[in-house]
């Protein structure tokens, strides 16, 4: 029942981690995929130093590897196998909710490494999951978003008020359609809050990104 968590640094992977623990699974190691330069996470654009600070707050090791989208699957399986040889893991935990192709891929790569995929949030109501996450004490801030939201949403905390704003703009409460990504800066199982600030913002491929830096 020891698990590796596919860790984006955002709210869904964090809440899946939290729910897996409640289900009796034992967290053992985190895995994050960086871009081909190794300076930011491929999915959320979060700097490695910030992801390391999260891992330190959880008191778990975090494993990184660099990848392009083209060789993502091959490298993912290779690294899963490597981690499974070095940690006593039996399961992988992912934060997907209802996109069937994502689940199929996660099960495929897990089986390739002789592991079993667990998706604690699967088939949950998207809005209800976010509300539960907030109530559980997970604090997440927006670190990238599309132009429907715009750069003014960067740095804002996911709370019940912002969900109403999302809905008025036709944006999914969970951001499952790629409208925004988050960074968790505090959670019930963190030993400390992540001291991070936004230095500046940038636009790439019509998407807004916050350039993050640890404080102190």
UniProtKB/TrEMBL annotation:
CDD domains: AANH_PF0828-like. One of its GO terms (biological process) is protein histidyl modification to diphthamide. Residues 5-213 form the Diphthamide synthase domain. Keywords: Ligase. InterPro entries: Diphthami_syn_dom, DPH6/MJ0570, Rossmann-like_a/b/a_fold. Its EC number is 6.3.1.14. GO terms for molecular function: diphthine-ammonia ligase activity. The keyword Kinase does not apply. NCBIfam families: MJ0570_dom. This is Diphthine--ammonia ligase. It comes from Seonamhaeicola marinus.
